Amino acid sequence: MPTPVKSVLPVVLLGCGGVGRYLLRHIVSCRPLHDNQGVSIRVVGVADSSSLLVAEDVHSSGLDDALLTNLCAAKSAGSPLSSLLGQGQYQLFQNPEARSKVIDAATTLGRTTGLVLVDCSATYDTVSLMKDAVDHGCCIVLANKKPLTGAYEDFQKLVSNFRRIRFESTVGAGLPVIASVTRIIASGDPVSRVVGSLSGTLGYVMSELEDGKRFSEVVKTAKSLGYTEPDPRDDLGGLDVARKALILARLLGQQISMDNISVESLYPSELGPEKVSTKDFLESGLGQLDKSMEERVKAASSRGNILRYVCEIESTGCQVGLKELPKDSALGRLRGSDNVVEIYSRCYESSPLVIQGAGAGNDTTAAGVLADIIDLQDLFQKTA
Ligand SMILES: NC(=O)C1=CN([C@@H]2O[C@H](COP(=O)(O)OP(=O)(O)OC[C@H]3O[C@@H](n4cnc5c(N)ncnc54)[C@H](OP(=O)(O)O)[C@@H]3O)[C@@H](O)[C@H]2O)C=CC1
Ligand SMILES: N[C@@H](CC=O)C(=O)O
Known about the structure:
Number of strands: 14
EC number: 1.1.1.3
Pathway: Amino-acid biosynthesis; L-methionine biosynthesis via de novo pathway; L-homoserine from L-aspartate: step 3/3; Amino-acid biosynthesis; L-threonine biosynthesis; L-threonine from L-aspartate: step 3/5
CATH superfamily of the largest domain: NAD(P)-binding Rossmann-like Domain
Bound molecules: NADPH dihydro-nicotinamide-adenine-dinucleotide phosphate, the ligand N[C@@H](CC=O)C(=O)O
CATH topology of the largest domain: Rossmann fold
Largest sheet: 8 strands, mixed
InterPro entries: Asp/hSer_DH_NAD-bd, Bifunc_Aspkin/hSer_DH, HDH_cat, HDH_CS, HDH_short, NAD(P)-bd_dom_sf
Shape: globular
Low-confidence stretches: none
Number of domains: 2
Organism: Digitaria exilis
Family: Belongs to the homoserine dehydrogenase family.
């Protein structure tokens, strides 16, 4: 019998909020499946906004599964990573030292066994770390859209070694949107247009409003279901969809930035993050929008239509905003947090490639991130 070989993928996770914690749980629960597939994910470090928990010797060991499980429980309960002190063989570093320790791991592992740096945070602050990791030959996986939607030079740098980056979950959560667009481009088939409903939150909110529910209530429910961004105004203001549009447009070769995307916001600037805290927006700001949203939905309904937040990407421009559509159109039939994306190209001209399914939620997003990590296995050393 030949000795079975296994790819070991060392991982450092940035962000252990809703998505990051689901990812850790999926990694632990998929151990038997991954064993059978000859692959093993070794979580060597986990960081949040203030600290990093890292294995004592990142070359030979990871954080054990019992610790990862306790870490998820502690973070869910609102406790800091430091509350886990004394529970295993690891070290804890606070910022700013935590950042340099991630770089140390990227430097040593990037040149030896390899490392996957996974960004499940919701901040722009990780971009320099991700760029350093790329320089050290590490692989990167992102659920966080922000590093790909800042300066165009940063996007270029992050995708410069395209075999070593995965960012499927940034658009459509677990849906294979990026993979499909990438395959079409690779076949020399020019993509002329991408159109779709790419916000799980706004899809859910709009279909609940059609059922007569109140805007302020359904936004809060969308937050509790894990569909929204940490500040739901990122969704309601169209920014989150615009980021997805920008990622797709840049993937299609457009050298554009957020300023080039026309974005419709569902809340007025007086309720913006510069003027109102997230807490106050949720508690009192949202209710101020109930009446106008109800009227918009009713007006569309009186014409036999529904409202959907639509994203359109063409060579002539990108726009995201509310559109009145027939109830029986592909977008009009969408319910709940489902996304739908239509991709038009030479091969898919009169009959577009359509991808549809759950487009938000911590579970499905984390599953997409895990699939991205596993997809990198062939780049890692195989050991007997
Ligand atoms: N939910 C969904 O359906 C989808 C989400 N995404 C993306 O996934 C990402 C994560 O979302 P979600 O889990 O809901 O967000 P959360 O706000 O729940 O979690 C964010 C995590 O990032 C940590 N963090 C903040 N700054 C840093 C930093 N500089 N370094 C390391 N960690 C940091 C936070 O730390 P602390 O715990 O200390 O606050 C927290 O643990 C977002 O970018 C979102 O857009 C993408 C597709 C779908
Ligand atoms: N907040 C986002 C989550 C996925 O990107 C959404 O609602 O679609």
